[in-house]
Amino acid sequence: MGLRRMWLGKSLILALWHRQPSRYPRYVDSHIVIGQDARGEDVRVDMEELLATRLLVQGNSGSGKSHLLRRLLEESSGMVQQIIIDPEGDFTSLSEHFGHVVIDAESHSQAEIEALAARTREHRASVVLGLEGLDVELQIRCAAQFITALFDAPREHWFPALVVVDEAQMFAPSASGEMAEDTRRLSLGAMTNLMCRGRKRGLAGIVATQRLAKLAKNVAAEASNFLMGRTFLDIDMARAADLLGMERRQAEQIRDLERGRFLGLGPAITRRPVAIRIGAVKSGSRANASALVPLPTAPREEMQALLHKELDKVVPPPPPPPPPRRAVEELEQSMRPAPMNAPPTRDRQPFGAPAMASGDHEEMLEEILAELASDPHITFQPSASQFQSFMMACRRKGATAALLDMTAFRRRFAIAVAGLHQLDDETQGRVLALGDLVDDDLLAPFLLIARDAAQGGTGPDEDELGRAYGTSSPGRIRRLLDHLERKGLVVTREDYGGGRSISVPGIETV
């Protein structure tokens, strides 16, 4: 009797549990249809098995690889969380039909990308990381940081998710290429973690590549399911045949596959290799650039006019050549002794003339420094040449240059180049106090940054900062900002799109 009551009690609890709405929907059938075989029968993929065994897709450009991934994502949408690393912008249209959130990497910084990845796991959002607007190396770094942040999510956020990486040979290359070594290690480590250790964290990697020979073997080896499309190189056909368990003489059929047809094998697909024709999709990719489009019918004269219309406004004229350097000649001329009976010249103060008053001297000095700083080429000259130009200007105007030695001139000239006269006296004093911590050769660009911050700006542009520093090298400007940031003088924020903002601690907006 007791056993019967116990059995009835368990049955009642199970019945009540099944009637309660579940927080996460339970799927009776986890299979999706990706296409048909040669006999016209549906070929299914077991998504639960795929989450545990991962997938590798290979196919040359134009073989239908992106179409296959789109079919797989569309059919499993709503069944499992999807995260797509999209270097070409092919999958952003999923947002229009299936509600995927598109993350434009170009408009976010590294810290924001990592925060977005953590929130993606926390809230189980299906997202597309769009990398299209970035350079190749920035695409690789951004994807690596995003995948690493997915991998490092706390244990309570380890929900199952598909992580689709298109053009995986970029992010997990088999050999070092033209990218920086630290970038390659960062990306290869992220991809290896995804494919080798991601399963325990709920991450199921789906990697797609144009060439198996260019994909790192330790990344490809972790996939147990394969969909092999058309390829022509012998080394890629041989590797594909080995993964499919085919003999070498059977590898020739991989070369003969039509567009949109793949050979599939794996525990989530089939136990024996099967040829699959991928089904239709709902969301379209961008316009196919390989399709024929009718040419314009405009006559040659009209087309020529269209090509050359306002060309001078599109392409700016080249900058004028720098003026010839005559500093040495002018200095030699000023040092020549004057004739005995020659009248006093404008370059010399007559003997016995009254000395210039202190206030007049300071005003004349400010005028000379401002005039010197207005020369667009002066900051690119060595400090000794700048000082010689300053001395000659003082001689021409009858000022006493001896009151400024070389060290004092460099600091006063940096203040003039930075344009600190635009600030009020109190703010200018705070900026100059911070400038005491900066070396003389870095003072002008720092004061320029501080002046811009005090005026509420986000930092001077590349050309303005380069002129103040006396360089046209972006690398030197980056190293300058890194040095100032390490000393705690500035705080920089860069996004992947190339935008940059610079703030100065201790400087308030005027």
Describe this structure as you would to a colleague.
The structure is a single chain. By secondary structure, the chain is an alpha/beta fold. The protein folds into two domains: 28-278, 3-Layer(aba) Sandwich (Rossmann fold), CATH 3.40.50.300; 358-503, no CATH class. Helix content is 44%, strand content 13%. The chain contains 21 helices and 13 strands. It has helices at residues 2-19, 47-53, 65-76, 94-98, 110-123, 136-151, 168-171, 181-197, 217-220, 234-244, 252-255, 300-308, 311-314, 327-335, 358-373, 383-397, 406-418, 425-435, 440-454, 462-469, 474-486, and strands spanning 31-36, 42-46, 55-58, 81-86, 101-104, 127-130, 161-165, 203-209, 225-228, 261-266, 270-278, 491-494, 500-503. The strands form two sheets. It has an eleven-stranded mixed sheet with strand order 2-1-11-10-9-3-8-7-4-6-5. The chain has a two-stranded antiparallel ribbon with strand order 12-13. Helix 14 packs across helix 16, helix 15 (358-373) crosses helix 16 and helix 18 (425-435) packs antiparallel against helix 19 (440-454). The protein starts with a helix and ends in a 7-residue tail after the last strand. Mean pLDDT is 79; it is low at 3-8, 10-24, 323-328, 334-338 and 340-357. GO terms for molecular function: ATP binding. Keywords: ATP-binding, Nucleotide-binding. Residues 51-419 form the AAA+ ATPase domain.
